[in-house]
Automatic annotation (TrEMBL):
Subunit field text: Homodimer.
TM segment ranges: 275-295, 301-328, 349-369, 375-401, 413-436
Biological source species: Ruania alba
Keyword set includes Transport: yes
UniProt keywords, alphabetically: CBS domain, Cell membrane, Magnesium, Membrane, Metal-binding, Transmembrane, Transmembrane helix, Transport
CC annotations in GO: plasma membrane
Subcellular location: Cell membrane; Membrane
One Pfam family cited in the UniProt record for this chain: MgtE
Alphabetized GO MF terms: magnesium ion transmembrane transporter activity; metal ion binding
Protein's recorded name: Magnesium transporter MgtE
Classification via InterPro entries: CBS_dom, CBS_dom_sf, Mg_transptr_MgtE_intracell_dom, MgtE_N_sf, MgtE_transporter, SLC41_membr_dom, SLC41_membr_dom_sf
Topology class, membrane: Multi-pass membrane protein
Keyword Coiled coil: no
Length: 438
């Protein structure tokens, strides 16, 4: 029996195996399978588990699952999702399929989903849940708890409840724990605390940082007049930050993020994620070749200089990448802001100089043994200069990029490689001309 048409015993065996796995384990499993096998195993899940797993899959994997299901099953699965889980999937689906799925929703569900789609793709409005339970200021604790007990299952969270006044303006929040331990006759207004809110038009990453940094279970999402639109929960915030970290890590390494599990990504997608930066780095390498051609006479006079070119380029590139990675990460968690540029540059200049002196101290004797003390001195001074330049530039690029509205991770790797390779060689040959008199 072929894998595409497994036997009844084989299906039962797979079903029992799937039943023994948790939701997180199933999500990981489906991320590792090819589309055909994933379709077979997804159909073996019970409805409730299928919905729970589907919600946590990457949107591009979700699309492949949708493509593999019958129209009725797709409609049923789509309707079971929360509005904030539908929006990323709709971005991946063809327009015709998306329109059909929206048409099959109830008017209320369709309106909520369309409202989220009206916000920019990377905004907090796209990530929020509009299904939120609110309390009035004058509500008593007893009445509030009664509302919680009778809240529909579609409500995103009951652990933190926004307290609203006229026109749904947010006046504060109250936790379920506070309600449970308070006098049943107390007013909610006397128990609420000021709310940390985010705007629907804020970037999703900035909003997620508010949730993480404040240790909140959820934060209200409001419009420009502080009217409640929904809530951003901690689980959605963590997904946003995880995706942002993956994106930064990929771009610092000179690739585009795959936005899906590696093993489920088509090989052509992996190629596309890497090829652009390789072209950029090849163009950058031509500048290095140009510098070497310009100093060809010096290389002919002292051939030993060529021995250390790969070492200098590698050292400078690594030092610059270390600095850039540190600053990009520090910016992501809010430790460093663009206003800190001069403090950062001063620290990295000193750091680079100390790194350069340390490497020069260790390497000068071996270099002298290989090529003589004159070239060893050239190499030592160049290493100090290259490390100082590389760390300073590596720290400066992300800050400048953020200032002009570019993702720091996008420009760091290719620009550092280009600048450090080129300026490092110019510095190397200039010092050589000065010390060796060539």
């Amino acid at each position: 029996m072929s894998e595409a048409h497994p036997s009844a015993d084989g299906l039962q065996s797979r079903r029992r195996r799937l039943e023994g796995l948790g939701t997180a384990e199933l999500v990981e499993l489906f991320g590792r399978l090819d589309s055909a096998e994933r379709a077979v195993q997804f159909r073996l899940l019970q409805k409730d588990r299928a919905v729970a797993v589907f919600e946590d899959l990457d949107p591009r994997v979700q699309r492949e699952v949708v493509d593999s299901l019958r129209e009725e099953a797709t409609t049923e699965l789509f309707a079971a999702l929360d509005p904030d889980d539908r929006a990323p999937l709709l971005d991946e689906l063809p327009a015709g399929v998306a329109a059909r799925l929206l048409e099959d929703l109830s008017p209320d569900e369709r309106a909520q989903t369309m409202a989220l789609l009206g916000y920019p793709e990377d905004s907090a409005g796209r990530r929020m849940s509009p299904q939120v339970l609110t309390l009035d200021e004058d509500t008593t604790v007893a009445s509030a708890l009664d509302r919680v007990r009778h809240a529909p299952e579609s409500v995103e969270t009951i652990y933190v409840l926004p307290v609203t006044g006229p026109r749904r303006r947010v006046h504060g929040v109250v936790s379920l724990r506070r309600l449970l331990v308070s006098d049943p006759e107390a007013r909610v207004a006397d128990l609420m605390v000021p709310a940390a809110t985010v705007r629907a038009t804020d970037s999703s990453e900035d909003a997620a940082n508010v949730v993480r940094d404040g240790g909140y279970v959820a934060v209200p999402v409001v419009d420009t007049e502080d009217r409640l639109l929904g809530v951003l929960t901690v689980d959605d915030a963590m997904r946003v930050l995880e995706a942002a970290d993956d994106e930064d890590a990929a771009r610092v390494g000179g690739t585009e993020p795959l936005r899906r599990p590696y093993l489920s990504a088509p090989v052509l997608s992996v190629v596309r994620s890497r090829i652009v930066w390789l072209f950029v780095l090849i163009l950058a390498a031509t500048l290095t070749v140009g510098v070497q051609s310009y100093f060809e006479a010096e290389l002919d006079a002292v051939v030993a200089l060529a021995l250390f070119i790969p070492l200098l380029i590698g050292t400078g590139g690594n030092a610059g990448s270390q600095a850039a990675t540190t600053i990009v990460r520090s910016m992501a968690v809010g430790d460093v802001r663009t206003a800190d540029v001069w403090r950062v540059l001063g620290r990295e200049l000193l750091t680079g100089a100390l790194l350069g002196f340390s490497l020069a101290a260790v390497g000068i004797a071996p270099a002298a043994w290989v090529a003589g003390w004159d070239i060893a001195a050239v190499l030592a001074l160049t290493v100090v200069g290259v490390c100082s330049l590389a760390t300073t530039v590596g720290a400066c690029i992300p800050l400048v990029a953020r200032r002009i509205g570019i993702d720091p991770a996008i420009v760091s790797a290719p620009f550092i490689s280009t600048f450090v390779d080129t300026t490092g060689l110019v510095l190397y040959f200039s010092i050589a001309k000065l010390i060796l008199g060539i």
